[in-house]
Specification:
alpha/beta, 6-stranded mixed β-sheet, DUF5615, DUF5615 domain-containing protein, 117 residues, globular, single chain, Rossmann fold, 3 helices
């Protein structure tokens, strides 16, 4: 799967995804740090990448319709410290192997993932 890791996530997230066989790039690697959300969304759509982010603005389906993107994965976590985020991403990787993301919005919480098409 092709993924773009937002700048609000630890760099290690991209590495975990790569180790699991995914094509993961980061916003920072592409020099897109600080860019507006619509710009990031446009780059993801152009590159055919699903976006993985902590930015809950991407959960607004009126602004970012899942049907327009390769996938939007928004992490809504009670804690956002690096060890906790990496632990949730490790569990998320197993789900990426089984469930389609394309044209869907995933809301990832500690104990569940909600999917909206």
């Amino acid at each position: 799967m092709r993924l773009k890791v937002d700048e609000n996530l630890p760099e290690e997230v991209a590495e975990l995804l790569r180790q699991a066989g995914h094509d993961a790039s980061t916003v920072l690697e592409q020099g897109l740090g600080g860019r507006a959300d619509p710009d990031i969304a446009r780059v993801c759509a152009t590159e055919g990448r699903a976006l993985l982010t902590l930015d809950v603005d991407f959960a607004n389906v009126r602004r970012y319709s899942p049907s327009d993107y390769q996938g939007l994965i928004v992490m809504r976590l009670a804690r956002q410290d690096k060890p906790h985020v990496l632990g949730v991403v490790r569990r998320l990787i197993a789900l990426l192997e089984r469930e389609p993301v394309e044209r869907r919005l995933w809301i990832v919480e500690e104990e569940r993932v909600r999917v909206r098409e």
